Amino acid sequence: MSLIAELQRRSVFKVGAAYLVVAWLVIQAASIMFPTFEAPGWALRVFIFVTMLGFPLALTLAWIFDISPQGIVQVDAGRAGAWRFYAAVGAIAALSAGWYWFGQPAVREVAPDMRSIAVLPFANMSGDAANEYFSDGISEEILNQLAKQRELRVAARTSSFSFKGQNTEITEIAKVLKVRLVLEGSVRKQGERVRVTAQLIDAQEGFHLWSETYDRDLKDIFAIQDEIAKAIAKALQLTLAAPASADPTAADAEGHGIDVEAYDLYLRALGLLPRRDYREIRQAIALLERSVERAPTFARGQAQFAIALNLNALYDPNAPVRALRERASDAAQRAIALDPTLAEGYGALGLVATNTGRDATALLLHDRAIALNPSFAQAHTWRALSLRGAGRWEESERESRIALDLDPRSLNIYSNLFWHMAAEGRHAESRALAERKLALDPESPSTLLELALLDLIERRNADAHGRLLKTIRDDPLARQLVDDVFEALEGRTPKGPVVAAVSARASKLFRPETNPYSVVNAAPVILLALGARDAALAAVERFAAEVGSEESLRLRGILRIALVSAAVGDLRCEPRFQAAISKVGAVDGLAKTMCTG
Asked: What number of CA atoms fall less than 13 Å from residue 117's CA on the CB side?
């Protein structure tokens, strides 16, 4: 009898087919259930291996035993084709073992584009919305550790966290953030225990490079973050630098240092800073103040406290600016003293220098921050502002583009680059940037104002009118003034009284949280549209006079840089304009190329 006939007689084909169908169903179910119960990444692989080994075992049992009227009986093993059958079964078992032992992801040479990563906010699996900040903080800390690697480009928190709660494909996220790798995961916090699951995905190839699950006591959270970051670095064939001994996180990993409550307060504050809403910044300051009181040696807490104080001085219209900047400088210096390798400390101190018009000092501090953390997008932005104030426009644009590349969903970075281009008369590029920014936040007052002013310059009055009205909230006088402007533009009312009214409200036309560049440009652009060139120059001169006044402390550093782009270049070659720029200590790097006559 042939081997095929013998296999049919012993029902080996039937048993094998049934086993494969059941095995396929079981593996499909396991691939769904294992991640749901946060099983480690190797568990599914072992399960599949055991299932594969069961196949040759089932075939062997079907060959040896038969179901007869007398029950299960052993069949003569020496019948036709036995040795060929056992050879085939052995080959199947060997292939299964080979798949398991030699089919592991190989360590391979990492392509240059693989040295780019986005860390997505980890999913909160705790069943308590109050723990959302904690899962976000895990992602933040891993991001911070990876960003220290000069070989690795890390997408900024603002952009990677913008996908939170969205059902966006990993490939699309990677495309938007211009990265090859994406880290995602989940956090389950229960009492004093925490489980963190993380997986690293190659978005281009569509497969997992690495995954792991960590169960720890909450006091070991820094150790978890460090362990995950190092595992990712190993997958990328990188070596993370050892943390500085002065860094409190190094102590925390050993079980002492900052307490859990102080760290919780710090994490809560981080989520309140990106939108630059001064009300949220106030809340962040209150949280960080409590955090550094509980943990005065926590360097990153001190640095974020300094950054928050800086931002409040810039965005809050009622802030005690001088006192805030003194506190910010003090907190930043403490952060640097505690950890000389902490980029955020130098960035915070540089921001104080930027906002007080000390460009040379600011550039040195921002250079140091970027050297320590090349992926620190905000430091690149702040450096770009100081370069512009020093008249180094080409370098400023390059720096702004680096920042946008690292943080492609940051509204502030878009605004800074918008006004840079607008000042050079690159209106089409400016509009494209503003429209991309508007797609990220359709209600952004600064974006609406930017587009409205560009509309006025290009004589798109109807569009400008609608957008300007959208930037005004609960200010009937401003709404009436905007309506009057467009009635005057259409010739339905005299321009003289409208010009006087715009001039009188030059610095208070729009909401205080609107980007300072827009505030400085609004009145001159509107006045130019009304044909009042002298009044537009007078508005620029008044802004320049305010730079030195106590009342303008809030905008002093940014105001002098914004003046360089005032009226987006239309007034640049006027001697009165150049005198105003000189008065505030800014350098107009565009005058040489734009004012040749």
From this structure: 31
Q: How far apart are the C-alpha atoms of 246 and 538, rounded to whole Å?
A: 53
Residue type (1 letter), 92: I
Is the distance from CB of 329 to CB of 346 less than 8 angstroms?
Answer: no
* CA–CA gap between residue 584 and residue 559 (Å, rounded): 9
Tell me the per-residue pLDDT of 419-434, one tens digit each, with 9 for 90 and over. Answer: 889 888 899 999 999 9
Q: Which of 285-294, 313-322, 503-512, 554-563 has the highest mean pLDDT?
A: 285-294
Point out which residues pair with 154 in neighbouring strands: 117
Is residue 252 predicted with pLDDT exceeding 70?
Answer: no
Q: How far is CA 225 from CA 139, 217, 249, 402, 513, in A?
A: 8, 13, 10, 27, 35
Give domain limits for the chain. Answer: 3-102, 112-242, 433-597
Residue (of 260, 282, 278) closest to 269 by Cα position: 282
* Dmax (CA) of the chain: 113
On whether the CB atoms of residues 518 and 510 are closer than 8 A, the answer is yes
User: What angle do the packed helices 377-389 and 343-355 form, to 10 degrees?
Assistant: 30
The alpha carbon of residue 104 and the mean position of all alpha carbons in its chain are separated, in whole angstroms, by: 32
Rounded Cα distance, 533 and 539, in Å: 10
pLDDT over 50 (residue 245): no
Q: Give tens-digit pLDDT for 466-517.
A: 998 888 877 788 889 999 999 999 989 899 999 999 998 887 776 655 666 7
Do residues 223 and 65 touch, judged by C-beta distance below 8 A? Answer: no
Reduce the DSSP state of residue 597 to 3 states and report it: coil
Cβ atoms < 10 Å from Cβ of 268 = 22
- β-pairing verdict for 207-217 and 65-68: unpaired
- The residues that bridge with 200 in the sheet, in sequence order, are 183, 210
Residue 460: is its pLDDT beyond 90? yes
State the burial class of residue 418 (Cβ atoms within 10 Å of its Cβ: 0-12, 13-18, 19+): buried
Q: State how far the Cα of 507 lies from the Cα of 422, in Å rounded to an integer.
A: 20
Write the DSSP assignment of 549-579 as a string of letters. Answer: SGGGGGGHHHHHHHHHTGGGGTTTTSHHHHH
> What homologous superfamily does CATH list for 112-242?
TolB, N-terminal domain (3.40.50.10070)
Query: What are the pLDDT digits (tens) for 5-53?
Result: 666 666 667 777 787 787 777 777 776 666 555 565 567 667 777 777 7
Angle between helix 411-423 and helix 427-440 axes, rounded to 10 deg: 170
Cα separation of 224 and 247, whole Å? 16
Closest CA to 131 of 194, 225, 209: 194
CA–CA dist 457, 451 (Å, integer): 10
Q: How many CB atoms lie within 10 A of CB 269?
A: 26
- Residue 47: the pLDDT is 73
